[in-house]
Hints:
Structural class: mainly alpha
Strand content: under 5%
CATH architecture: Alpha Horseshoe
Number of domains: 1
Helix content: over 70%
CATH superfamily: Tetratricopeptide repeat domain
Amino acid sequence: MNKENVLTVAVAIIVGLLGGYLIYGVSSHKEPVVSSSVPTGTGSPTEYQQRIAEAEKIVAREPGNVQVWNQLANDYFDTDQPQKAVQAYTKVLELDPKNTNALTDQGIMYRKMGWYDKAIANFERAQQIDPNHLQSLYNLGVVYMVDLKKTEEARAVWTKYLQFDSTSPTAQQIKADLGTLPPPAGK
Length: 187
């Protein structure tokens, strides 16, 4: 291989890794959920527990530290502690009421606990703040489609999603899911 080919391969790998991070780096979840602010799960359970313990100490001293509250909420999210995550996101939202990512992630935790009405309210509130917030729109469709079996509502939400994004892996998944639905009522 000559230098030019090696350079081309190296650039392609870097672009691929960067693209993968941008597309998939916002979610560390196996279920059909796209989180908005939770980073890809990094760290062992021990590292998470150490980080959580440290963050808990910091917020006890500095209850107005929204950044640490958010990290604590994300760590609870990643370690499958939905009730604690909801409480921490509540604090984030008290300090930063228009944080669409915290609203969405808290909504995902509400969904995990089976509180679909609260999840929907969070996703809709995020949409009111930012109608282009795709993660809240996607997750709203998930609740309608998967949990509530309200296919017409899911279809409406995901059709709106596809107006903003029609090519990402999430959009492709939405298209596949929509393809399994019966035709809209009245058609």
